C-alpha cells in the first residue's frame, strides 16, 4: 500500500483556496466553548455542568447529542497536526480531560452525552436515534487524539469504551442470537467496524478484531460480495462507513473479499449513482442506478456522504495507484467539499447541496446552518473535512529501495519528504477564464546540505488537460500523457525546480441517466471545476454543439461592475432587478446574496459596445460623462435596463440576438442633476431630457417636474463581482453567467443544462 504523509509534515500555503477553507474552519473550532461542548456529558455523568448546552442536534433533548463532540475531537486533532495552533491544542486537551472525568464518574467505561437507556431501547429493537452512530464519533475522536496528538489518556478512555460495548454486544448475542445483533444493525451505527479495526491495528488484541467483525453488516456487504448492483433504497450514509470499515478489514487481515467488494461498491456508485459534483444520494438515499434525472431537487448530495466516499476512494488509490480513484477524489473534493462553507464565515455550512435548476444553497430544507444552533451530522463531517485538506496531496511508496513520492493534488503546500531527505515547496497558479493554463512548480531543498540520494517524484497528469508540459531546471521533458503519472527520478538537490503547465478545456458530461427524456441533460466543466450557471429556474441552452463548447462558452473579459445607490429617508438604497425583470430600489444587499447579484450591473460603452477593461468608480463620474452606455445585469448576461416611454416602467429586456442592446436600452451618462459630486444621472439617449427616476422603490422614466435628487445616483463598486473563472454560455434560448459551483453562496443556479 502507498503510505500517507503525516499531516504534521504538510503545510498548506496561504494563497490556496484550501488554506482559506482550513483557516475558516480553525476560526470556527476556536469559537466553540469547552464547557458548552461537554455540558451534556457532565449532566449524564451526574457532574456539575458549567456553561450551557449548544443547540440543534446537541440540545439536551436530542438523542444524537454528543456526536458533534466526537467530530470535534477528530477535527481538532487533525487541525493541530495541520497547523500546530497552540490554542486548539489547549482546548482539545481540556475537552479530553473533561470527558475523562465523566467516564471515571460513571465507572463502567461507558462515555456518552446520553444515558445507557438508549442502548437498552436499541437492543430491544425499539425506536431510538442511532446511539452507536454517536459512540462511533466519540471513539474515533479519542483515537484521533491519540494518533495525531499522542494523548495517551484518550487511548485509555477508548479502551474502556471498547470493553464496555464489547460486553454489551456479547450480552445481546448470548441473550438472543447473532441474528438479533445483525438485525439491530439496520439502525445507523456509523463506522463502528472502522474504528474497531483501527484499534486492533494498535493493540493486536483478538477481542478487538472479533468485535470489529461483528459490525461488518452482512446483509449489505453480502450484496456487494456477490456483485449485485442493489444499493437503491439504502440510506447512503448508513452504509458508506460500513464499506470503509470493510476496507480496514482487508488492510489488517488481508481478506481479499473485502478489497473486491469495496472496489465493486466504488464502481457502481461512481458510474451510476454520482452527480456532476462527485456527490451521491437524494434525500439521503440511493435511487435506482442511472436514474438521476428526476432526483434533482433541493435535497441532493448529503455532505456526509461526500466526506465518506472520499475515504473509500483514498483507500482504493493507496492500494491500487489507479488514476480514476485520484480523479474521483479531485472532483468530489473541489466540487463537493469546498462548496460546503459559506465563504469565509466560520460555522456557516450546508447539510444538502441542491442541484435542481434555480436552486440556492440557502434554500433547502436546512439551508445554511449557524455556528451554535445547528450541529447537524454534516457539521461534524465538515469540520473534519476542512481539518485534513493536506492528507491526500502526497503519498509515499515505502516498499522499494528508492524513495518515491506521489502527488495527486495540485495545492500550494510544503511537504517534508523525510525518506528522501528533501523538502518540497509546491506552488499552484490557477487558470482563469481568459488564461486556461494552470502552472504547478516544485522547488526542492535538501534537509541536510551535501547529502543526496536518488528519489522518484510521480506527478499526476490530469485527464482534463488538453496539453501538458514539464520543465526540469528549464529543460523540457517529454512524454506526458493525460490520465497517467509522470515520473522524474534523479539525485535532487537544493535549487532544483520542476514545473508543469496543464491547459484546461471546457467539456460537457451527460447526467447518469439512461432514459431518453434525460439524454440531453449535461453538466459543464472547466478543467476539474464544475461550472454552475446563474439561473432562477431556466436550464435550457437550446441547439449547441456539445463537442465544441468553446464556440459558445466565452470568457468574461472585463470586470466593469457597479452598483448605483440613492439616499432615501436617511437609508442607502440600491438599484436592483427582480427575477421577473422589474427594477426597484432595495436595502443594501449582503455580499454573496442573490440580491447582491441583482443589484450589480456591467457598464457597457456604446455605440460599438466597446468596454474599457478596468473602469474605476471615479471614471464613471468624470471620464465617461456624456458617453452612451447600457446597463447589463450581472447575473443575466444579455439583459439590459430598458425604458418603454415617458412615465412608464423601466425593466430588464433581452438585447438583440447579436448581444447588442436595443436603442431603448441606451442612456447618456450625465453629471448628477442634484449637483452632488460623485453622483450621476441617466438620460434616455432616444428621448432628450428624460431621466431614470427613483420614486421611492419604483423606477420610472420622467421628463418633467421630477425631483432632481430622485434622478441622481451614487456609484459604487458592484456588490457582486466576477469569479476569475467566469464565462458566458450563449445558447439558443438564453445566456448564462457561469463560474465554479464551489464559489456560490446564496445565488440561484443551475448545474445541469438541456442542450
From TrEMBL:
It comes from the Eukaryota. GO terms for biological process: L-arabinose metabolic process. Residues 404-502 form the Non-reducing end beta-L-arabinofuranosidase-like GH127 middle domain. Residues 9-391 form the Non-reducing end beta-L-arabinofuranosidase-like GH127 catalytic domain. InterPro entries: 6-hairpin_glycosidase_sf (IPR008928), AbfB_ABD_sf (IPR036195), Beta-AFase-like_GH127_cat (IPR012878), Beta-AFase-like_GH127_middle (IPR049046). One of its GO terms (molecular function) is alpha-L-arabinofuranosidase activity. This is Alpha-L-arabinofuranosidase B arabinose-binding domain-containing protein.
Amino acid at each position: 500500500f502507498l503510505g500517507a504523509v503525516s499531516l504534521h509534515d504538510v503545510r498548506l500555503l496561504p494563497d490556496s483556496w484550501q488554506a482559506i477553507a482550513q483557516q475558516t474552519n480553525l476560526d470556527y473550532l476556536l469559537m466553540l466553548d469547552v464547557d458548552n461542548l461537554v455540558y451534556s456529558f457532565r449532566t449524564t455523568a451526574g457532574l456539575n455542568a458549567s456553561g450551557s448546552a449548544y443547540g440543534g442536534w446537541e440540545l439536551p433533548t436530542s438523542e444524537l447529542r454528543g456526536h458533534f463532540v466526537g467530530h470535534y475531537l477528530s477535527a481538532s486533532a487533525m487541525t493541530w497536526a495541520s497547523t500546530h495552533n497552540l490554542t486548539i491544542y489547549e482546548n482539545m486537551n481540556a475537552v479530553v480531560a473533561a470527558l475523562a472525568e465523566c467516564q471515571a464518574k460513571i465507572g463502567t467505561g461507558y462515555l456518552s452525552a446520553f444515558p445507557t437507556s438508549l442502548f437498552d431501547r436499541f437492543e430491544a429493537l425499539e425506536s431510538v436515534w442511532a446511539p452507536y452512530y454517536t459512540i462511533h464519533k466519540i471513539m474515533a475522536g479519542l483515537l484521533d487524539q491519540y494518533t495525531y496528538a499522542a494523548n495517551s489518556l484518550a487511548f485509555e478512555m477508548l479502551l474502556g469504551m471498547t470493553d464496555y460495548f464489547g460486553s454489551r454486544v456479547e450480552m445481546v448475542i448470548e441473550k438472543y442470537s447473532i441474528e438479533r445483533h445483525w438485525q439491530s444493525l439496520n439502525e445507523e451505527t456509523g463506522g463502528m467496524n472502522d474504528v474497531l479495526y483501527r484499534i486492533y491495528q494498535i493493540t493486536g488484541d483478538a477481542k478487538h478484531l472479533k468485535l470489529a467483525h461483528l459490525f461488518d453488516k452482512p446483509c449489505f456487504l453480502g450484496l456487494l460480495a456477490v456483485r449485485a448492483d442493489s444499493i437503491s433504497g439504502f440510506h447512503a450514509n448508513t452504509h458508506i462507513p460500513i464499506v470503509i470499515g470493510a476496507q480496514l478489514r482487508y488492510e489488517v487481515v488481508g481478506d481479499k473479499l473485502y478489497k473486491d467488494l469495496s472496489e465493486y461498491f466504488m464502481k457502481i456508485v461512481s458510474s451510476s449513482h454520482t452527480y456532476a459534483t462527485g456527490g451521491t444520494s437524494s434525500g439521503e438515499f440511493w435511487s435506482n442506478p442511472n436514474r438521476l434525472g428526476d432526483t434533482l431537487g433541493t435535497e441532493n448530495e448529503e455532505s456526509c456522504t461526500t466526506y465518506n466516499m472520499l475515504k473509500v476512494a483514498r483507500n482504493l488509490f493507496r492500494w491500487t495507484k489507479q488514476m480514476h480513484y485520484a480523479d474521483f477524489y479531485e472532483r468530489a473534493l473541489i466540487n463537493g467539499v469546498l462548496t460546503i462553507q459559506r465563504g469565509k464565515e466560520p460555522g456557516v455550512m450546508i447539510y444538502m447541496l441542491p442541484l435542481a435548476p434555480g436552486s440556492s444553497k440557502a434554500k433547502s430544507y436546512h439551508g445554511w446552518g449557524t455556528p451554535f444552533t445547528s450541529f447537524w451530522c454534516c457539521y461534524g463531517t465538515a469540520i473534519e473535512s476542512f481539518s485534513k485538506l493536506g492528507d491526500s496531496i502526497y503519498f509515499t511508496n515505502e516498499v522499494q529501495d528508492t524513495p518515491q513520492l506521489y502527488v495527486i493534488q495540485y495545492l500550494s503546500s510544503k511537504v517534508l519528504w523525510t525518506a528522501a531527505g528533501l523538502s518540497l515547496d509546491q506552488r499552484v497558479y490557477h487558470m482563469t477564464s481568459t488564461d486556461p493554463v494552470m502552472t504547478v512548480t516544485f522547488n526542492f531543498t535538501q534537509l541536510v546540505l551535501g547529502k543526496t540520494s536518488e528519489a522518484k517524484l510521480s506527478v499526476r497528469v490530469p485527464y482534463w488537460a488538453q496539453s501538458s508540459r514539464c520543465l526540469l531546471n528549464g529543460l523540457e521533458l517529454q512524454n506526458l500523457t493525460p490520465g497517467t503519472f509522470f515520473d522524474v527520478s534523479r539525485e535532487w538537490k537544493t535549487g532544483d525546480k520542476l514545473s508543469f503547465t496543464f491547459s484546461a478545456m471546457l467539456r460537457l458530461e451527460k447526467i447518469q441517466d439512461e432514459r431518453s427524456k434525460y439524454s440531453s441533460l449535461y453538466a459543464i466543466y472547466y478543467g476539474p471545476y464544475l461550472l454552475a450557471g446563474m439561473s432562477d429556474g431556466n436550464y435550457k441552452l437550446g441547439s449547441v454543439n456539445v463537442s465544441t463548447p468553446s464556440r459558445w462558452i466565452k470568457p468574461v473579459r472585463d470586470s466593469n461592475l457597479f452598483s448605483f445607490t440613492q439616499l432615501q429617508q436617511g437609508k442607502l438604497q440600491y438599484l436592483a432587478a427582480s427575477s421577473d425583470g422589474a427594477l426597484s430600489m432595495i436595502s443594501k444587499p449582503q455580499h454573496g446574496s442573490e440580491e447582491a447579484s441583482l443589484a450589480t450591473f456591467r457598464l457597457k460603452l456604446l455605440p460599438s459596445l466597446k468596454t474599457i477593461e478596468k473602469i474605476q468608480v471615479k471614471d464613471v463620474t468624470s471620464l465617461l460623462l456624456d458617453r452612451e452606455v447600457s446597463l447589463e445585469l450581472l447575473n443575466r448576461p444579455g439583459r439590459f435596463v430598458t425604458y418603454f416611454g415617458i412615465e412608464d416602467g423601466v425593466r430588464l429586456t433581452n438585447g438583440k440576438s447579436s448581444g447588442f442592446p436595443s436603442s431603448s436600452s441606451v442612456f447618456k451618462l450625465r453629471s448628477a442633476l442634484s449637483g452632488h459630486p460623485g453622483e450621476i444621472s441617466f438620460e434616455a439617449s432616444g428621448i432628450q431630457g428624460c431621466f431614470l427616476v427613483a420614486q421611492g422603490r419604483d423606477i420610472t422614466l420622467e421628463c418633467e417636474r421630477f425631483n432632481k435628487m430622485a434622478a441622481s445616483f451614487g456609484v459604487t463598486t458592484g456588490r457582486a463581482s466576477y469569479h476569475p473563472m467566469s464565462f458566458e454560455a450563449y445558447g439558443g434560448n438564453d445566456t448564462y453567467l457561469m463560474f465554479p459551483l464551489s464559489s456560490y453562496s446564496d445565488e440561484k443556479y443551475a448545474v445541469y443544462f438541456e442542450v
